[in-house]
Amino acid sequence: MPPAEQRTGSIYDLGYRRYDGLRLGRQHAVLSLYFYTLRGAFGIGRRASSKIIPIVITVIAFLPALIQLGVAAIVSDEVDVIRPENYFGFVQVPVALFCAAIAPEITGRDMRQRTLSLYFSRALERRDYALAKLAAFATALMVLTLAPQALLLVGNGLASKDLADYVGDNWKDMPRTIISGVGIAAAMGAVALAIAAQTARRAYATIAVVAWFLVTWPISGILVTEVGGAGRAAALLSPFDFVYGATLWVFDVEPDRDSVQDLAEIPLWAYGAAVAAYAAAGTALVIRRFGRIAA
Amino acid sequence: MALIETQQLTKRYGETVLALNGLDLVVEPGITGLVGANGAGKSTLIKILLGLLEPTSGDATVLGYDIAREGPVLRQYVGYMPEHDCLPGDVSATEFVAHMAQINGLPRAAARERTAETLRHVGLFEERYREMRGYSTGMKQRVKLAQALVHDPRVLFLDEPTNGLDPAGRDEMLDLVRRTGAEFGISIIMASHLLGEIERVCEYLVVIDGGHLLQQGPLGDFTAAMGVLAVEVEGEAAVLAANLRERGLRVEVEGRMVLVALEGDERAFDLIRDSCADLGFGLVRLERRRQNLEDLFRPTGRGTAHAAS
Asked: Which of A272, B62, B228, B235 has the lowest CB atom count within 10 Å?
């Protein structure tokens, strides 16, 4: 280490060396971007202020699970266990918040700071970049949709009299829970990212994502409950409604009386198809956007 | 194998702007300066070679790889330092450069190690653990160079690397670029509109103008062919200049001096002598100017406007 007074403004030759080691290429580049983006979504490796929002939202997603486990631990063993499909009904809200707050960061950062040209001049293609970002964001959302339920399953299992019995009774819910959790993350995540990717400005992107959630919601409600007829198809417009419909379909549960899904009288599988269609459309839009953007 | 080869490379923006116009170019390994006025097509050429822009038509290879079909493989061996800002403010240089190394295919451990070495090489020490938003322009330029070098590229594209630097920072950056090319055998393509910088660093020169190749060759060829003779006479400089122009010389007036381009031959000396004798001017001084590239380009580019004013 050179003495401090010499260090300012001078360049030292401490030996640049050539590198003859492994070059793992495109696949490694994509994986690295995926993990870097996933860490960034929760503010890991960033300043403390970048961690606050994602962590608060994540905690919100865990709250029902924590409360139920806490109550079960304090009171007796006769507590109503939260049904997975009901948990998904709740967790949509923190997922939407996460989309609005974090999706603009996932896509907008590199546009704003013009880091895209550094990525696109490296060992990946534009499409790889888009897919890595999408996958990382969907994974971050799955932390919200799936991790609380995993905690609940383990916690309730441990609290029950017989762990093996509990698992035996509940294992059928597991694939359904996973399918539902992945579907919510993929559909909401892909569309939110597609919206956010249209602008580098963070505030605009957040507003646009919020608008997708909040403007479609009353429209769907009014068209389904007040207008009826062909207007009932509007249940497929609002992310909250179609995602919940898909969850009901996956768990094979009848919608509550007078809920949007009940009044719309659309077959429940249509909501599942909508989730797949939204996820595919969002993905295509994100790929298209990053395929064309100037870098 | 040539470092870079382009065939009829063309880039059109919209209907009207032709940034590259059927460029045919062969660049050999070494340190090459890419010279041209702003808007000559330097950045466009670099971006096409990196795969950041798609050419409208034409082909190119870098390191023997086809830029259209073998982009990701090629770009493992390419480094790029853009002209513009490109650093996120909320991460440290260490974190960012290591990430960039991995995006170029380096395994995690190697990326960390190379990051530390490369940041030292460019002269960044404890600051490298701080968020980059607090960096000075000079430090940011160093990080930009480091991220282009961290994966040990075989060819480095530098787009105006001294942008925004003060004279001392400029000297250091140019020295760093020169040493990186000369001592480590990394081929460098350095775009600049400042000929003085190119002259200090580069071995070869490629001059593009209006999207096509104007001239190309070793730097020595250019400096030999571009002597400038400064002539001072007792008499009107403008009159002498007019007289010399009639004799077919490229001439410019600079204050009391008449600048004459020496185009490879010694004919000009005789013509100046004859001219002074005919006009009856006393020849006070006849000196060869330090030969630099600005002098070469002045008569064709800025010089015409200059002389007219």
From this structure: B235
| pLDDT > 70: percent of chain A | 94
Task: Give Cα B2 to chain centroid, integer Å.
Answer: 19
- Locate B127 and state its tokens: 């600051």
CATH of range B4-218; options 3.40.50.1950, 3.40.50.720, 1.25.10.10, 3.40.50.300: 3.40.50.300
Q: For residue A251, which of A39, A87, A42 has the smallest C-alpha distance? A: A87
Could you say which of 3.30.70.920, 3.10.290.10, 3.30.450.20, 3.30.70.270 is the CATH number of the domain covering B225-308? 3.30.70.270
- Domain positions in chain A are 24-292
| DSSP letter, residue B131 | B
The residues near A256 (Cβ < 8 Å, ≥ 6 apart) are: A262
Strand B204-209 relative to strand B212-218: parallel, antiparallel, unpaired? antiparallel
**Reduced to 3 states, what is the DSSP secondary structure of residue A293?**
coil
Is residue B158 predicted with pLDDT exceeding 50? yes
CB atoms within 10 A of CB B156: 23
- Cβ contacts below 8 Å, chain A against chain B, sum to 135
List the one residue out of B252, B247, B256 whose CA is nearest residue B228.
B252
CA distance B303 to A272: 71
Q: What are residue B61's DSSP bridge partners?
A: B5, B66
Q: Are B51 and B26 in contact (CB under 8 A)?
A: no
User: B282: which strand partners?
Assistant: B234
HSE, CB side, 13 Å, CA atoms: give it for residue A26. Answer: 14
Distance CA B49, CA A255 (A): 57
> Model confidence over B81-114: pLDDT tens digits?
999 999 999 999 999 999 999 999 999 999 999 9
Termini Cα distance of chain A: 38
Q: What is d(CA B234, CA B273) in angstroms, rounded to the nearest whole number?
A: 13
Residues of B in contact with A36 (CB under 8 A): 99, 102
Dmax of chain B from CA atoms?
78
pLDDT, tens digit, 9 for 90 and up, residues B52-78? 999 999 999 999 999 999 999 999 999
**Which of A27, A118, A128 is most worth mutating to test chain B (most B CB atoms within 10 A of its CB)?**
A118
